[in-house]
Design a protein that fits this description.
The complex is a heterodimer of chains A (116) and B (112). Chain A has 116 residues and is mostly beta strands. Helices cover 3% and strands 55% of the residues of chain A. In chain A, a hairpin with a 2-residue loop joins strand 5 and strand 6. By secondary structure, chain B is mainly β. In chain B, strands 2, 4, 5, 9, 10 and 11 form a six-stranded mixed beta sheet that branches. Chain B is globular and about 45 Å long. The chains are: A mainly beta (116), B mainly beta (112). Chains A and B meet through strand 9, helix 1 and strand 10 of A and strand 5, strand 9 and strand 10 of B.
Chain lengths: 116, 112
């Protein structure tokens, strides 16, 4: 199993809604990542978890709240988002934290989020 | 901030043609990754390079780690319609977090 699975595939939410994005991998990877990608732009790092602990927060607004319940799961809780937060949200994983070992990074298919 | 610049920005070619694209940085990198992204999907890793001068192939794709360590190249031979997508290079930023950053992307369109 070499997959990173993200749900839902698409999400439309209002600015007052609370929703969550989910990510799962069963490759035994100990590092998991959230990226945000605007159309025709490269992915931008948001958060890194290493051994289920938050290692990097790229100054992301608090309306985005990550959670890593166990080594296979990564969630991104969304609350009071703005229309400019509409983007493709990508989850990724690597065997160990990329910063330490230059491991290969594997991505999920992403959640296309639209905030109305 | 640090940026990886990819060239060309976009390419429109005929099926069967060979393709070349590159990625350049103002800083030295010790790893280069090449990804392909289809519309509405996540990036898929194509090739990883870890050593200056390294030349690595994956089917019709060949990538090279530039000897200056400031650039990398990706070639696609005999392109087919399913090669369509955006190609990103990526490399570690260095410093305390060694964050992986992505290039600006090359959009490839293949005319059957």
């Amino acid at each position: 199993d070499t997959e990173v699975t993200q749900t839902p595939k698409h999400l439309v939410m209002g600015m007052t809604n609370k929703k969550s994005l989910k990510c799962e991998q069963h490759m035994g990877h100990r590092a998991m990542y959230w990226y945000k990608q605007k159309a025709k732009k490269p992915p931008e790092l948001m958060f890194v978890y290493s051994y289920e602990k938050l290692s990097i927060n790229e100054s992301v607004p608090s309306r985005f709240s990550p959670e890593c319940p166990n080594s296979s799961l990564l969630n991104l809780h969304l609350h009071a988002l703005q229309p400019e937060d509409s983007a493709l949200y990508l989850c990724a994983s690597s065997l160990f934290f990329w910063g330490a070992t230059n491991e290969k990074l594997f991505f999920g298919s992403g959640t296309q989020l639209s905030v109305l | 901030g640090q940026q990886l610049n990819q060239s060309p920005q976009s390419m429109f070619i005929q099926e069967g043609e060979d393709v070349s694209m590159n990625c350049t940085s103002s800083s030295i990198f010790n790893t280069w990754l090449w990804y392909k992204q289809d519309p509405g999907e996540g990036p898929v890793l194509l090739i990883a390079l870890y050593k200056a001068g390294e030349l690595t192939s994956n089917g019709r794709l060949t990538a090279q780690f530039g000897i200056t360590r400031k650039d990398s190249f990706l070639n696609i031979s005999a392109s087919i319609p399913s090669d369509v997508g955006i190609y990103f290079c990526a490399g570690p930023l260095g410093g305390a977090t060694n964050k992986l950053i992505f290039g600006t992307g090359t959009l490839l369109a293949v005319q059957p």
